[in-house]
């Protein structure tokens, strides 16, 4: 009943003359769903769909970007990966990358989710391509942690593609960047991932050289040093 009443209220807004107050109210509703997403709280396709319909008619590119992105998340959470991918692509198409206020960080999240879908479908080359794009937009959006987290995801694509030299290279690069921006535990985590690759390849002679003095200080919180 609650969902039905919400849908009827939103339908009234859609069918009546839309004012700035209406748009602000709808944006607040969309933002509330985004907060639920950030907090790991569930939401459904029917929760998001009215906002997609409204903002497709009355929203800014950033409004439409967020609405289609959240719709994709809702589909994916309900096991509908093809629909989720379509929504993510729709979201990316909504972005106006020529605009000064383009929400590049949100666009990075869209491509990051596309990469995630491809990973779990075993499409690692596609995952790699989308992850690289997500990193580019995260930097443009000045979201340093998002950029580094997404860059770290490239490690998994390279590992599944059997490109182990690239795994080691990215591990070292992203670890250095994490340290540069003050994320020491993340820097250590990235190095651990590189060490696992070296060990799995039985390149034991490289493991000792792989860790410098500063890295050892970080590693002692993760693995015992004897």
Describe this structure in words.
The protein is mostly helical and 226 residues long. 78% of the residues lie in helices and 0% in strands. The chain is built from 12 helices and no strands. It has helices at 2-15, 20-38, 45-58, 61-77, 81-94, 104-120, 124-140, 144-160, 164-180, 184-200, 204-210, 213-219. Helix 4 (61-77) runs parallel beside helix 6, helix 6 (104-120) runs antiparallel to helix 7 and helix 10 packs antiparallel against helix 11 (204-210). The longest helix has 19 residues, at 20-38. The radius of gyration is 21 Å and the shape is elongated.
For the largest beta-sheet, the strand count, sense and barrel status come to: none
Beta content comes to under 5%
Number of helices: 12
Percent of residues in helices comes to over 70%
**Shape designation:** elongated
- The topology string of helices and strands comes to HHHHHHHHHHHH
Mean pLDDT: 85
Class from secondary-structure proportions: mainly alpha
The low-confidence parts are 213-226
How many strand units?
0
Labels describing this entry:
single chain; 226 residues; mainly alpha; 12 helices; 78% helix; elongated; disordered C terminus
Write the layout of secondary structure elements.
Elements: H1 2-15, H2 20-38, H3 45-58, H4 61-77, H5 81-94, H6 104-120, H7 124-140, H8 144-160, H9 164-180, H10 184-200, H11 204-210, H12 213-219
Provide a quick synopsis of the model.
This protein has 226 residues and is mostly helical. 78% of the residues lie in helices and 0% in strands. The protein has helices at 2-15, 20-38, 45-58, 61-77, 81-94, 104-120, 124-140, 144-160, 164-180, 184-200, 204-210, 213-219.
């Amino acid at each position: 009943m609650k969902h039905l009443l919400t849908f009827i209220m939103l339908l009234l807004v859609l069918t009546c003359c839309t004012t700035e107050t209406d748009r602000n109210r709808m944006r607040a509703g969309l933002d509330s769903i985004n907060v639920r997403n950030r907090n790991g709280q569930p939401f459904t396709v029917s929760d998001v769909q009215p906002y997609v319909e409204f903002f497709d008619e009355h929203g800014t590119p950033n409004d439409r970007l967020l609405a289609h992105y959240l719709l994709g998340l809702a589909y994916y959470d309900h096991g509908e990966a093809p629909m989720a991918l379509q929504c993510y692509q729709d979201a990316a198409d909504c972005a106006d990358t020529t605009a000064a206020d383009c929400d590049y960080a949100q666009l990075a999240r869209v491509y990051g989710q596309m990469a995630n879908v491809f990973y779990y479908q075993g499409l690692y080359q596609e995952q790699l391509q989308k992850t690289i794009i997500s990193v580019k937009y995260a930097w443009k959006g000045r979201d340093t942690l998002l950029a580094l987290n997404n860059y770290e995801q490239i490690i998994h694509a390279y590992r599944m593609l059997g490109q182990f030299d690239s795994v080691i290279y990215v591990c070292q690069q992203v670890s250095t960047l994490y340290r540069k921006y003050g994320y020491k535990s993340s820097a250590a985590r990235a190095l651990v991932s590189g060490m696992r690759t070296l060990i799995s390849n039985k390149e034991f002679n490289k493991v000792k050289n792989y860790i410098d003095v500063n890295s050892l200080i970080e590693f002692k919180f993760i693995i015992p040093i004897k």
